[in-house]
Amino acid sequence: LSSLFVLTLCGRMEINMKTAIVFYSMSGNVRATAEKIAETTSADLIELKPQKTYPGKGLKKFFWGGKSAVMGEKPALLPYTFEAGEYDRIIFGFPVWASTFAPPIRTFIEDNRASLEGKKFSAFTCMSGSGGEKAIEKLKAFLGVSEFDGELILIDPKDKPSDENETKIKDFCEKL
């Protein structure tokens, strides 16, 4: 109970949950968004990095990333620190690849599935094209949940900053 603080906001009682943002970022859009959310929510950042990096440019980037996502691959990750018992909520952040979530997220969930039981979940995704809604639905299905506390879909927030994206991030944080 020591990690929970009761706050009165807008005339109602809310519990401040300890939150981790678990994310994978290839081009920096997801990382920049994760950092903004963490700054607003005081969440801890847990960045996932595959042992073997994906190609970062050109046709190879889309071919290998898309193939890996569609095939449901679970790449080996570099070591990270995650103590599930410290967190009440997990926010997943990822780029959209072939209308699904990036494979490092799949690896993290599989590696920690038992310790994720009973947690609250939210998710955000960054994309250049489309498929964000499908990717979030696929993540829900993979986690075995019917809804997230919050969902956020952004188009290239680091590469193409906009007031609209900033408002969406602010609104997402307020839902948590």
Could you walk me through the main structural features you see in this protein, from its secondary elements to its overall organization?
This protein is of the alpha/beta class. Helices cover 37% and strands 24% of the residues. It is built from five helices and eight strands. Strands 3, 4, 5, 6, 7 and 8 form a six-stranded mixed sheet that branches. Strands 1-2 form a two-stranded antiparallel ribbon. Helix 1 (29-41) packs across helix 5. Residues 1-14 have low confidence and may be disordered.
Which strand-content bin applies to the residues? 15-25%
Total helices: the number is 5
What is the N-to-C succession of helices and strands?
EEEHEHEEHEHEH
Low-confidence stretches: 1-14
Molecular shape: globular
Assembly level: single chain
Write down the overall mean pLDDT.
Answer: 84
Helicity range = 25-40%
Instruction: Please state the structural category.
Output: alpha/beta
Major sheet: 6 strands, mixed
User: What is the count of β-strands?
Assistant: 8
Distance from first to last alpha carbon: 19 Å
Please state the CA-atom Rg, rounded to the nearest Å. Answer: 16 Å
